[in-house]
């Protein structure tokens, strides 16, 4: 009995959670004063001996749902608990003598997700703006900085320096893609890091110029009068303003309208365009601009082929080979040998050195090529390679962008950028958010997409005051950041600081960087962006999306990248809204199997929309009801028209049921709105016109499973009993699939 008592105590736990398999749940016990242990099969007998006094809560754990609470309501009889299969019953406290077993109803919480914006939603957002939690969300640094430790600092410093070795050569190379001076690439590599560390929600993202954004920048800026740098800075400012506006208005969902096939098609085409644009630097020739399409670029290569410089080709090929080799470089794992299970210390040192060479390969190649050119030019006065030329590498005081560039007004500047004011910020944010989501999922932490808009917008606006062009989160550098063990956004600050130190200390050496080395960096970075798998997957899953991808890719290649992106977006959105203009509506005509004419409702036509219907489908709904299936009359028995309502009524008086006559008539229409969860005024006006048309033809139309809100639009007079002509227009109930005769409602 003592052992049993201990089991009873173990069974008495308040709101205990269990991780056991539901299939392994065994019958448990609960206590009463009259018996220490009572199995659940004896619950009824035990409780019948108690008198009614107070209430207590119990918890039932069913098979297959271990954590589910079951409510039987107050006053449940003990007999109702008999025979429950394999259930365990726990009391929050022991029952006293004479106390009944009564169950309290469980509370439930209902949360609405999605749907149209309501006034209550706006009020809730406004109330949330004035809370401490909102301030912490808008300044994420206030969350992680108080918990910062030495371990975090070590990881962030190592990762920040590693990324810094990559970002310096890359930002110089990406400025070459945009076809602007290299100092604008350097200016874009540090301030964005500082701002994102304050406002960003991802520990892994590093902000700076990217290949895709550099290509778009070179496409949308003007190059007259040598002011392309001013135009690039202005674009950075307006891109940041657009991102801030979207963040504050919570319009981040707009990036979801850019489908994956469109992005993939644009990316594949951009990679080809970028690689082709850099081959000229490996050849040592100069021509064209960033706005040239593939056809124009290939034509330029044919004309410039005789001017190819051998030393540049040699340097470019050598740099590409070294980069590809170092990317694949990996130190073999230690294999345990007899007498030595653990590797020696030198093994770990060499392994770390190989890893460092792998992650800093861009810096190694660019520095080596620069040293070679510096020695040849300064030491031997030999000019073998095409170099970047003088670079104004300095940290200048902040100043606003030139809003009077070429003496244009603000409106003229905005019109000059055109679609770039929308496409560039959307693609920039989408690229960064995709990177942040990838690493948030990998390392199991959360990001705030709206805050990401604000962080990127602030980074671009502030960077524009330091002479930068548009920046965003870079996937390759963020992946390197994560692999290097970054722990907090402080890693971004370390990277930005490294870039500042490099600008101040190495600024005079940037002019000796060979263009072929930078072109090799760009080409090797872009090779990883090809995605051949998506073609196969789209071919299997949905060929229409494959068409969108190929169309976007082709137009980007043979027109211009901005035109291709716009065309791809347009086609993708048209494919998205087409089902709204042509929703699925199932029309089923009821046919009788009898040889003799049956009642008219045996031939009824059922109309059932398979989802919500909105204004693009308004005329389409009318066309459906004009289909010949609705216009074919049938011969059937019917109650004379004057004895019951035109449509939508209750059961007819018994005396009228015998007044059946054989006549030719249009079968009744039953509109089933069970899937019509939402609609708008235009679509419901179309249904109203169908309803009015049926009335004018003396044809029955019945609305079932349709909400009152929708019926109030379709039949606005249905509740006005004072209108004698329209009194009987109410919904007809259905009974066993038959249409009841209509009559005056009671």
UniProtKB/TrEMBL annotation:
Protein name as it appears in the record: Sodium-independent sulfate anion transporter
Keywords of the record: Membrane, Transmembrane, Transmembrane helix
Transmembrane regions listed in the UniProt entry: 231-249, 255-276, 313-334, 413-436, 490-510, 516-534, 546-578
Compartments it resides in: Membrane
Biased amino acid composition, Acidic residues: 13-22
UniProt main location, coarse: membrane
PANTHER family per the UniProt record, alphabetical: SULFATE TRANSPORTER
Highest taxon listed in the record's lineage: Eukaryota
Stretches for region Disordered: 1-27, 58-88
Domain SLC26A/SulP transporter positions: 153-552
Membrane topology classification: Multi-pass membrane protein
Any one GO CC term of the record: membrane
BP term (GO), one: transmembrane transport
Pfam families assigned: Sulfate_transp
């Amino acid at each position: 009995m003592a052992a049993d008592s201990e089991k009873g105590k173990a069974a008495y736990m308040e709101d205990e959670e269990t991780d056991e398999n539901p299939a392994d749940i065994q019958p448990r016990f609960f206590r009463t004063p009259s018996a220490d242990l009572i199995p659940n099969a004896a619950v009824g007998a035990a409780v019948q001996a108690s008198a009614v006094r107070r209430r207590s809560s119990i918890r039932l754990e069913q098979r297959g749902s271990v954590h589910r609470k079951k409510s039987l309501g107050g006053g449940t009889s003990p007999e109702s608990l008999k025979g429950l299969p394999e259930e365990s019953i726990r009391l929050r406290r022991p029952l006293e003598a004479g106390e009944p077993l009564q169950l309290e109803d469980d509370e439930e919480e209902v949360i609405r997700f999605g749907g149209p914006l309501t006034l209550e939603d706006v009020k809730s957002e406004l109330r949330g703006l004035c809370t401490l939690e909102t301030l912490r969300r808008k300044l994420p640094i206030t969350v992680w900085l108080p918990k910062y430790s030495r371990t975090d600092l070590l990881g962030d410093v190592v990762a920040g320096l590693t990324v810094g070795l990559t970002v310096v050569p890359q930002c110089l190379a990406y400025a070459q893609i945009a076809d602007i001076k290299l100092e604008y690439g350097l200016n874009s590599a540090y301030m964005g890091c500082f701002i994102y560390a304050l406002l960003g929600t991802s520990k892994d993202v590093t902000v700076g110029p990217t290949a895709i954004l550099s290509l778009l920048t070179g496409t949308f800026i003007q190059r007259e009068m040598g002011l392309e740098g001013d135009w690039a800075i202005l674009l950075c400012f307006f891109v940041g303003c657009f991102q801030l506006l979207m963040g504050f208005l919570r319009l981040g969902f707009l990036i979801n309208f850019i489908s994956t096939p469109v992005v993939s098609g644009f990316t594949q085409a951009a990679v080809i365009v970028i690689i082709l644009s850099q081959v000229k630097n490996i050849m040592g020739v100069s021509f064209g601009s960033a706005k040239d399409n593939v056809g124009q670029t290939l034509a330029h290569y044919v004309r410039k082929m005789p001017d190819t410089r051998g030393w540049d080709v040699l340097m470019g090929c050598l740099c590409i080979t070294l980069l590809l080799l170092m990317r694949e470089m990996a130190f073999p794992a230690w294999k345990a040998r007899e007498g030595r299970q653990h590797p020696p210390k030198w093994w770990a040192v060499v392994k770390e050195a190989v890893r460092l060479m792998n992650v800093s390969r861009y810096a190694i190649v660019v520095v080596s090529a620069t040293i070679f050119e510096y020695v040849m030019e300064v030491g031997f006065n030999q000019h073998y390679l095409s170099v970047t030329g003088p670079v104004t590498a300095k940290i200048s005081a902040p100043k606003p962008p030139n809003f009077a560039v070429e003496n244009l007004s603000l409106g003229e500047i905005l019109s000059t950028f055109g679609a770039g004011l929308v496409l560039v910020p959307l693609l920039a944010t989408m690229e960064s958010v995709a990177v942040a989501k990838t690493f948030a999922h990998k390392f199991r932490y959360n990001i705030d997409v709206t805050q990401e808009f604000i962080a990127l917008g602030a980074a671009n606006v502030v960077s524009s005051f330091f002479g930068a062009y548009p920046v965003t989160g870079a996937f390759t550098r963020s992946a390197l950041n994560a692999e290097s063990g970054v722990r907090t956004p402080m890693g971004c600050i370390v990277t930005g600081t490294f870039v500042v130190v490099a600008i101040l200390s190495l600024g005079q050496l940037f002019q000796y960087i060979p263009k072929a080395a930078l072109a090799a960096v760009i080409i090797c970075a872009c090779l990883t962006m090809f995605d051949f798998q998506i073609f196969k997957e789209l071919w299997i899953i949905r060929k229409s999306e494959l068409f969108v991808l190929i169309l976007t890719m082709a137009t980007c290649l043979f027109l211009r990248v901005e035109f291709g992106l716009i065309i791809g977006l347009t086609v993708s959105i048209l494919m998205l809204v087409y089902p709204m203009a042509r929703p699925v509506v199932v029309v089923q005509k009821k046919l009788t199997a009898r040889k003799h004419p049956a009642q008219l409702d045996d031939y009824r036509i059922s109309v059932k929309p398979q989802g919500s219907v909105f204004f693009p489908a308004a005329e389409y709904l009318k066309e459906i009801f004009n289909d010949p299936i609705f216009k074919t009359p049938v011969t059937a028995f019917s109650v004379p028209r004057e004895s019951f309502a035109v449509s939508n009524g209750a059961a007819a008086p018994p005396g009228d049921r015998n007044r059946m006559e054989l006549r030719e008539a249009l079968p009744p229409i039953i509109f089933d709105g069970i899937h019509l969860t939402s609609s708008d005024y235009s679509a419901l006006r179309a249904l109203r016109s169908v309803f009015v048309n049926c009335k004018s033809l003396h044809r029955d139309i019945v609305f079932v499973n349709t909400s009152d809100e929708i019926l109030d639009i379709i039949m606005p007079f249905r509740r006005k009993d004072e209108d004698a002509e329209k009194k009987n227009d109410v919904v007809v109930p259905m009974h066993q699939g038959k249409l009841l005769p209509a009559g005056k409602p009671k």
